[in-house]
Amino acid sequence: MLSLLGYKLSEGKVPFIVQAPLGFDQINTTIPTGKIESISYESKTVGSIRKAAVYTPPGFNKKKKYPVLYLLHGIGGDEKEWLNGGSPQIILDNLYAEGKIEPMIVVMPNGRAMKDDSATGNIMAPDKVQAFAAFEKDLLNDLIPFIEKKYPTYKDREHRAIAGLSMGGGQSLNFGLGNLDKFAWVGAFSAAPNTKVPQELLPNSEEAKKKLKLLWISCGDNDWLIENSKRTHDYLYKNDVPHIYYIEPGVHDFKVWKNGLYMFSQFLFKPVDQSVFSAYTILGNPAQTNIRNAKYPQILPDNRVIFKIAAPQASKVQIDLGRKYDLTRDSEGFWTVTTDVINKGFNYYSLLIDGVAVADPASQTFYGMGRMASGIEIPNKEGDFYALKEVPHGEIRINNYFSKATNSWREMYVYTPPGYENSTEKYPVLYLLHGGGEDQTGWTAQGKANLILDNLIAENKAKPMIIAMLDGNMGNTGGIAGFNESALKAFENELKTGAIPFVENHFKTAKDSKNRALAGLSMGGLQTLYAGVKNSDLFSYIGVFSSGWWANNTTLSEPQYEFMKNNAQKINSNIKEFWISMGGKEDIAFENCKIMRSKFDQFGIKYKYSEYSGGHTWPVWRHDLFMFAPLLFNK
């Protein structure tokens, strides 16, 4: 098998090229060449005669028909900018000689549609900037009809492409995606801020999926305008619009743009395989969980991850993402690896240097697995519910309180909903518990609980509520270690005599059972089962995420089942919503939960059950909160 960027190709199949080779832009005197000519056309849009440069391919024959690429310049250029800085005719001549592109006409117009269209004076003047938008009419109504009359061209959208650099890249996206009846091939190299926001750029993603042959977006990783490309890519990714998002080492210059033309032109006017679009890139985007200015880890368009670690003295370096990946060392002491596709959402990981697990200094750290660990956020098309949006936001308050139950100072994180400060309303409270090896920071740092509630409340899908995120680690047990009924009893005591009194004395809360809910994940799910069921007079809503009494620990589970059997009527009467969820069969708690539910059925305990594939992970628990919160405080 051959391999490229992690993709395995069948034997005998030539791997595709993802970067221009040396000499791609150098003159080769031994091959046929195309011709460049300057043309003038009447623009009724502008009310003047305008100029463009036109490239015709080697062996151009007026008796044949050709497809056309309209190639646009940047804000400081004109119809000669590509010729002066990008050598497109040389790049294309060389590609023709190698049989890598279809014969095509390339039109390089002046994209500044105004009577004085020279790149002189203040190129950022409002009228000159506006002229780039006005060029859309000139292009569609004047230039394209002129070209298709003067040259032997195909006149359908499948044989028409548009691409450009910088300001021209923004034009290409705006005009190409805004006129899918005119263009089937659209390319943007380092698109500038004139690019429309994604929702305006592509309001109908279904139409784009049907009509686009190729949408190409490329940029240098050190280009200060890269955010314009990334936001467009993010929107396309979320809406499943096939496209190539190509990031390479570089800045805002012709080195990047020439490579963009070299790559883009090879796709045009021939069949394309959209299934491998995500492999066409050199670099990925830095993960949003990276520390400030850290370039690695990088996430590739298909959610594989590139790690690059500086450890010149190490003899072995690995990344542990549930599966261990061996890194390869280069001559400068940098270790690299590209992983398989990683699960969407939040993932813990560890850096193993000579067998010692440490946090990656390039990533944010999170308390998990009983220690500070690295975490990486992988893009998720289904993750809009926990995205940071322009909606009213609540606040996270870090509270220290002295607990009489433990005779010690403890900490809890409290979410108050938007408008809390200025309201006289009494709010219901969800007491929300983390898992083993985690703490009170988990539901905000890893779980995005505040953003989930902000978005639900903004859409009127959940009642405004307070969320108290408690530290479920009691004494020195450190999570599930030594977990037994004594530890559960200690937590129940802390909840009833420490946490709830503190919340109800310091926040504007409604102090009755119908306005209290208790939920938790994994270990926190067991704490919820214990404290919630035994105190059904205190809580009307219970949520159990990825948890269940351990089938192999009857000493712990049997007394709980006996209590439920003897109090089934009271539990059903008091608990308005008993919600149990799992991360599918791959969830490590799945079998325990399945056995527990069969016991509930046997005892007549009323509950609702939900599954969301993803295993025993934070992406599942985020979704659990998203589903559970709207059920609360409505009965």
Automatic annotation (TrEMBL):
<dbReference type="InterPro" id="IPR050583">
    <property type="entry name" value="Mycobacterial_A85_antigen"/>
</dbReference>
<dbReference type="InterPro" id="IPR000801">
    <property type="entry name" value="Esterase-like"/>
</dbReference>
<dbReference type="GO" id="GO:0016747">
    <property type="term" value="F:acyltransferase activity, transferring groups other than amino-acyl groups"/>
</dbReference>
<dbReference type="Pfam" id="PF00756">
    <property type="entry name" value="Esterase"/>
</dbReference>
<dbReference type="InterPro" id="IPR014756">
    <property type="entry name" value="Ig_E-set"/>
</dbReference>
<protein>
    <submittedName>
        <fullName>Esterase</fullName>
    </submittedName>
</protein>
<dbReference type="InterPro" id="IPR013783">
    <property type="entry name" value="Ig-like_fold"/>
</dbReference>
<dbReference type="InterPro" id="IPR029058">
    <property type="entry name" value="AB_hydrolase_fold"/>
</dbReference>
